[in-house]
Design brief:
Pfam families: HATPase_c_2. By secondary structure, this protein is of the alpha+beta class. It has helices at about 35-50, 55-75, 115-125, and strands at about 25-30, 80-85, 90-95, 125-130, 140-150. The longest helix has 18 residues, at about 55-75.
Length: about 160
Amino acid sequence: MDSDHESDDRPPHRPPVPSRDPYVYTLQSSRHATSPKVCRDFVACVLNSVGQEELVDTATLCTSELATNAFLHAEGDSLMLRVVIEPPRFRVLVYDASVELPTAARLPEGDRLHGRGLGLVAALADAWGTAEGDAVGTYAKGVWFELAGKEEKAEDQPRPFTG
């Protein structure tokens, strides 16, 4: 299946495979009312740290939607956020314990206050979809989005720890 969102409202099951080793940053959070803010701040910090500041607003909005969905609708007492950077692509995955996959990604009609999250993600992200649970088996599924950033400059690349 193609990695982009198809018109049948079913997200692709897995994110695209990176063409080289990506940079990966992971946050595990309690499933708590503060989780969406903590996840947003984490994503903003990572993007600012790797020189992708132009993606911060869109990425934090999409992250907030996915983390809020996990907080409101998922089972379990935690969620996991994974930020994968394969320049110039940037992917955020939010894992939770729910086995229920999201299916619709269109904005609801009218003045409804709820049900807009995945529609916003679909409208703003270059791609989005679902992934199988984490490798350890703590989480049943992940929902991800991807944005294209600027080409990486040598000074923006994360450097290995030489401590």
